[in-house]
Structures are given as C-alpha cells and as structure tokens.
C-alpha cells in the first residue's frame, strides 16, 4: 500500500507529464492502490483518481471500482469527497454506470451526503440526460425499494428544475417510454408521483399529450373491468386514478370514458361502497368527482340510459313532501332530511349531461314521473329557501376576520352549496326545462368574499399532504355545514378533500398498483 509521500510523488509524475500522461500507467496504478491505505491515503486517492481518469481508458473499470470503494468507506469525510468527484467519471459509455451508482447512493441517511448525490446526479444529467435516465430507471425497475423510492422522488422534484436544452423532446419521449414500463407495477403513491412527473413534461402539455395521460390513467383505473364496490382497495384505486385524471380534462380532452364508467358501474352501487379510509364520506367523494368530470363529457353512446341512472340516483336524495294527517299536521314523526351536498353534486351532473339531451324530462319520462319530480323539486326548493335565509342572516354584516372562524367558513360554504342548488332547480322549473345557467361547484376556490351580495364566497384553506404521500392536485379542505336540528335539518357529516387514500393491495392479475411485486436481483 502506498504512503502519502508515494501518492504525492506519483501525482507529480502524472501532473508533469502533460500530454504524455497516458504513458505513466504504473504511476496511476499506485494512486489506485491508495484506496487500500489509511484515512489520509484514501482522501488523497479520492481526489487524484478522478483527476487523471480520462487518460487511462484501459484502467477505467479499476478506477471506477476504486472510487466506489471510497464512496462506501466508513469515514464520512472520505465518502463525501469520493461522491463529490464521481461526475468526473461520467464520460462516454461510463456515464450510465456512474448514474446507476449515484442512484444507489441516494439511499444514504446522511443529509450532506444525500445533497452531494443529488447535485452529482444533476451535474451528469446536464452532460447526458439520456444516459443519466438509463441509470435512474435501471434502479427504479430493479433496485432496492428504498433506492426505487428515492429515485422516483428525485425525478419528481428535480426534472422541473432542468432547462429546456437538457429536457429536449427526445429526452421527454424517453421519460414517457420508461415511465410506462414502471407504471405496469406501481404503488398508489408511486403512481401519483409519476403522474406529477409526466404532467410536467413540456411535450405533454398539448391536447394530444393530455389525451395520452388520460389513457394512462384509464389503464391504471382498469375501466374495462367490472367494478367491485365491496373491495375497499379497488374503490380506492378508482378514486385515486380519477383524481389524477380530473385536472387533465378540458373542452378538448373529454372525460366521457370515466363519466360513463361512474354512471354505469359506480352510481348503481353507491350505497354499498367501502373504503379503507376512516371517517371518509365515500359516497360524497364519488359524487364530487363525477360532478367535476361531467363538465367535460363528450358524446356518450348510451346517453339516455346513463342519464336515467343519474336521474334515478338524484331522486333518492330529493324526498317527497311528508303526508299530512287530517288535522293538517305531518303524519310522520319528522321531516325528511335534506342532504344538500349530495344534491349539489347530483343535480350539477344531471344539469351538465342533460344539456346533451334537453328533452329528457319532457319526452323521455312519462307524465307521472315528471310530475313526481317537480313535486320533489318544489319541496326541496321550499326547504332550501328557509335554509338560505338562515345562513344569510347568520352571516349578515360579517367581514374580514369574522368570516375566518371555522363556524363562519362552514356557513359560507353551505351558502354556496344552497345557492348553487337554487340556481339549478330554477333552470329545471322552466317550461321546457332549461340547462343554460352556470354555477361554480362549492368546493372550488374563490378569491373574494362578498356577503352583501346574494352570493357568498368561501375562504379556502389548502391542506398540505404528508411528505410521503403527495396526492397530485391539492384540494380545498371543506366541512359540510350541519344546520340546527329542525324542519330542514341536513345530516351530512364532515369531509376533508385534502385527505390522501392509503396505499393498499387491490388484486388484479399481472398488476400491482398498491403493492409491488418482489424484485428479482
């Protein structure tokens, strides 16, 4: 093993050789042997090996292995020095191997070391993006779970920081191609991260790019399979995927396939849905997603059939007036409870799809059915007006800080819900029914709060997801207003849209969306 003096002497030989440095193979070998020495010798070797690496291609493997030994040394200062110098080995065909090594080093628990690895990866990314991606995806597909997890997070956080000259169209195509391979077997959290990665690519900002992403999500959601409402993990999978799809929909990228699936498979089973998330109103969650998607539904093959299913589900939440006894009082013990949040979602969805078949209520329903519906609408509208008056009275004169209390924020949301329902009901009371009014769903963020007007806006609070479970697009935390018990009481519970669904297994042949298969080494 060479001493410190011998390392310096051989370093001098190589430094003085200038253009003939490649002729001094023996001197470079001495420096490589420095990794077998003590702490001082290793520190010098960590600096000297990369400095002359490019001059000895025949010793490339030995040099990289020597530096890798230093990257795994017990002395943290030696490891850091060796990692810092790794990008100098990233030349030609060696680059993917260096990228692979650096990706494996992401598993370190030392924060300074971890930052060095990140910086080194970014450094070689700018040298050769395709080669670096080769090393990263190699570990994502075949590496240890901790390495895979951190490599995916590296891509999700660092790609967006790279300039356009690095993330060329060809590089983005490679990311998409490799990501598709990974998406064949991912956990729920990994799926969300990959959607974040892909939706951030410039080449996928186009209509055709967004359509590609929607198709990827549809494949993960398994929309070709029969829906199983009793399997909480499969319900979870559908909701997780739908959340990723919703931001992609637009007037040019249609939600038809998802809306059709919800109408045909999910709505008929709404009452039997199960979820692994404690305290979640799963039915309201489904209805909110359907409402958001309904705005972007294109031409639907079985429009009348699906509209009827939506209509029938709406009727379940639009009660008939209670029968009156001979003395004019209610025969029943209590008034039906009006579930405003459910009705807002269902009525909005019906209103959106009804535009595509405007004669549904007049031509597709028999007279008795239409009469029954209008009675329900009228009864609901009466309760609605009482509720709206109560809310406006409670919020009257309140501005600024007063509106920021939890109680008043809930009331503001409740007023938005009831105003929305009121507008939609008025449309349907027209003869013939109209579908022209436009409302903003109550959970959508609004900037201003104006109580003096007939509409009130919500102060929104964005919830930050846990570090390990980023759920893509953030939702506004929202509680459902539960008015005082009485004639028009609602029984709605609480709901926080920012909550993440847990990652769990949903059995499906050849796919492991919630639990990855065992990696073969």
Can you describe what's shown?
The structure is a single chain. With 521 residues, this protein is mainly α. 54% of the residues lie in helices and 1% in strands. It contains 20 helices and two strands. The protein has helices at residues 4-16, 25-33, 39-52, 60-71, 76-85, 95-105, 111-127, 129-142, 145-158, 169-182, 188-199, 207-221, 232-245, 256-266, 282-294, 303-316, 340-354, 360-364, 367-395, 406-429, and strands spanning 477-479, 494-496. A two-stranded antiparallel ribbon has the order 1-2. The protein is elongated and about 105 Å long. The two termini are 34 Å apart.
Number of helices: 20
Largest sheet: 2 strands, antiparallel
Overall pLDDT, averaged? 84
Strand content: under 5%
- N-to-C order of helices and strands: HHHHHHHHHHHHHHHHHHHHEE
Radius of gyration of CA atoms, rounded to a whole number: 31 Å
Q: Classify the secondary structure makeup into a structural class.
A: mainly alpha
What is the number of E strands?
A: 2
Q: Please tell me what the overall shape is.
A: elongated
**Terminal CA distance:** 34 Å
Helix content: 40-55%
Question: pLDDT under 50 segments (min length 5)?
Answer: 447-521
Task: Walk across the major sheet and give the strand order.
Answer: 1-2
Family: Belongs to the API5 family.
Pfam families: API5
Subunit structure: Monomer. Interacts with FGF2 and ACIN1.
Keywords: Apoptosis, Nucleus, Repeat
